[in-house]
Design brief:
With 329 residues, chain A is an alpha/beta fold. Chain A is built from eleven helices and 14 strands. The longest helix of chain A has 16 residues. The chains are: A alpha/beta (329), B mainly alpha (278).
């Protein structure tokens, strides 16, 4: 999808451009005696793509609904698009944000154009026709403006939902599972659009189950399971959770691996994995890999491969969620 | 109107009208129901013989009068009952509520769309019956009673007031119902009680005069205002989205930014919740 039609996002009502787009402090939401989310704190900078991850029932959607002023927090505070979250500021905040739920929620008996006309009217946009044309162009839906939404595929409806979310040039966009149920091509289109939003300085709050999507698109991620388990850049979380390791594969089992994988080689710990594969914990893979290679050759081993083990965001997620006592319940 | 943005209100009403136009059930009901309600007036006009005494003829005209007032009460009821629960069913309610639109703008915008055609149809039907009676009624008392000033005034006053009640009660049911069909059935039933007021007049339990019509009109207006106050209170964003009303928040307001953004593992409390990610 092209990002050329819409102008850079700017909302005149927000004066302090250096201020974070979202500041969430000890926010809690309870329904009776059950917690939707508890004591959640994080910040999202302007122009950042922020991933919000967590298992089903973790409280992601409820957090989005709370920050989107649909439901009131039980305790804690938040500042959304520079405006403190309160019952009195709901309409003011909603003017500056847009929320796209998992189901884009289009009026299926109305055309694409009519759906957007409604929302342009609700946001009180000037020059509605031009703005609608621009966002339709952005999501490559201009030729289908006159079609009834009920006749569009799920992927196309998702595009219309994104166009609607772009209409008001929001300061913060909340996208709840925007690629849920989409085929790979449609997902790629959505990814491209989110990437173009980042280039234009839009703050995107993205909830997703797709960890590769979060890793690819997000500057930082938060992992939620009722309480916040982690916040940071994917790389930082990997470093914090997992020690660096090398995976060594030889043609045959080493007769005396303890003589090769020594602290002098930069190896802190090693474990065999299978017949002739060894996983080495190292503090600095770049320093340890050449030393270990030389030591293996000197020991007469036939080395098939030495690779730095890379942990994905999925590993981080699973590690955090698995060690969460709530996960097994 | 104070606190209402006319642009947003118009956008809501326009959307509703567009949806009605493309919904065969609604268009069909608006076209067919009036013809059904013409059966009774037609019998009175074409069958009631000139030999029937004026008092008896006036009683029959009273039943016609009541039937004509069922139209503005019943037609908008099913439409209004769909208004909120239907949006929730389609998944359109949440995107709508995340816009700056205010509660009053949604409610009035949604109410305007059915009230205009319903009242329009009721007036047209009444005008048609009066014209038919004037030209074809065998009993002269029929035309005289129908075109009597107090009857015309009652029809003009009661039709919109009954429609507004019907839409209000339908919307109230719609905010709480979880199923469209249940909402529509209850909405139709709940639209009928105010007809009891008009029945008093129709069956000549209370003789109809100008001041009676005005008095009953004022009574219906008071009931309508009370109903719409209830509807406004029921239209709570949180309740519509999660099914439960918010409890009073503590410590909500601007706070200091959180200290760090690096990983922190904490103790865990609470399990699944009602507001869920579904």
């Amino acid at each position: 999808m092209a990002g050329d039609a819409a102008s850079p996002v700017a909302n005149e009502q927000v004066s302090d451009r250096a201020a974070p787009a979202l500041v969430v402090s000890h926010l809690t939401k309870r329904f009776g005696d059950r917690s939707a989310f508890e004591d959640v704190s994080f910040e999202v900078a302007r122009g950042e793509v922020f991933g919000f991850l967590g298992p089903n029932g973790a409280g992601k959607t409820t957090t989005v609904r709370t920050l989107g002023t649909l439901i009131a927090p039980t305790s804690g505070s938040a500042v959304v698009a520079g405006i403190p979250l309160s019952a009195a500021t709901g309409a003011e905040i909603r003017q500056l944000i847009s929320v796209m739920p998992e189901n884009p929620g289009l009026y299926l008996r109305l055309t694409v154009q009519e759906n957007l006309e409604l929302f342009a009217g609700l946001y009180g946009l000037p020059s509605r026709g031009a703005r609608i044309a621009a966002v339709l162009d952005t999501v490559n839906m201009a030729p289908r403006a006159r079609e009834l939404c009920g006749r569009l595929s799920k992927g196309l409806r998702q595009r219309v939902g994104l166009a609607r979310a772009l209409l008001s040039e929001p300061v913060v966009m909340f996208l709840d599972e925007p690629t849920s149920g989409l085929d790979p091509v449609a997902s790629r289109d959505v990814h491209d659009l989110i990437a173009s939003l980042r280039e234009r300085g839009v703050t995107v709050f993205l909830t997703t189950h797709r960890l590769e999507e979060a890793e690819r698109l997000c500057d930082r991620v938060a992992i939620l399971n009722t309480r916040l388990l982690a916040v940071g850049r994917p790389e930082e979380l990997r470093t914090q959770l997992f020690r660096s390791s090398l995976v060594v594969e030889t043609a045959a089992r080493l007769p005396a691996p303890e003589a090769v994988f020594t602290p002098e080689m930069g190896v802190e710990r090693w474990t065999p994995e299978g017949d002739a594969t060894y996983v080495l914990s190292v503090s600095d893979p770049k320093m340890a890999a050449p030393r270990v290679t030389r030591a293996l050759v000197a020991a007469g081993a036939d080395v098939l491969s030495i690779a730095v083990s890379r942990h994905s965001l999925e590993d981080v997620y699973l590690q955090l969620v698995d060690e969460d006592p709530e996960a097994g319940r | 109107m104070i606190g209402l943005d006319m642009g947003r209100l118009a956008a809501m009403a326009r959307k509703e009208m567009r949806e009605y136009r493309r919904t065969p059930f609604i268009v069909g009901a608006m076209l067919v129901l009036p013809f059904i309600f013409l059966i009774n007036p037609a019998i009175v006009i074409f069958v009631l013989s000139a030999a029937v005494k004026p008092a008896a003829a006036a009683r029959d005209v009273g039943s016609t009068f009541l039937v004509l007032l069922v139209v503005p009460a019943v037609i908008p009821a099913t439409v209004a009952a769909y208004s909120v629960v239907g949006e929730r069913d389609q998944g359109t309610l949440e995107p709508l509520l995340t816009t700056p639109v205010r509660r009053g703008e949604i409610l009035i915008g949604k109410a305007l769309a059915p009230v205009i055609p319903s009242v329009g149809i009721a007036y047209l039907l009444f005008a048609l019956v009066v014209i038919l009676a004037h030209f074809f009624a065998q009993n002269p008392a029929v035309a005289a009673t129908l075109s009597d000033g107090s009857h015309v005034l009652a029809q003009v006053l009661f039709a919109p007031l009954l429609a507004v009640w019907s839409i209000g009660v339908g919307t109230a049911i719609s905010t709480r119902a979880s199923d469209v069909r249940v909402a529509q059935q209850l909405g139709t039933l709940a639209s009928l009680p105010p007809l009891a007021v008009t029945a008093l007049v129709s069956f000549q339990i209370v003789p109809l005069g100008v001041w009676t019509a005005v008095g009953f009109g004022l009574g219906l207006l008071v009931i309508d205002i009370a109903m719409w106050r209830v509807v406004a209170a029921m239209f709570d964003r949180e309740r519509l989205i999660t099914g439960s009303r918010a409890v009073k928040a503590t410590g909500v307001g601007p706070g200091s930014p959180p200290a760090g953004t690096v990983r922190r593992i904490q103790a865990f409390g609470g399990a699944d919740h009602g507001g869920g990610d579904a």
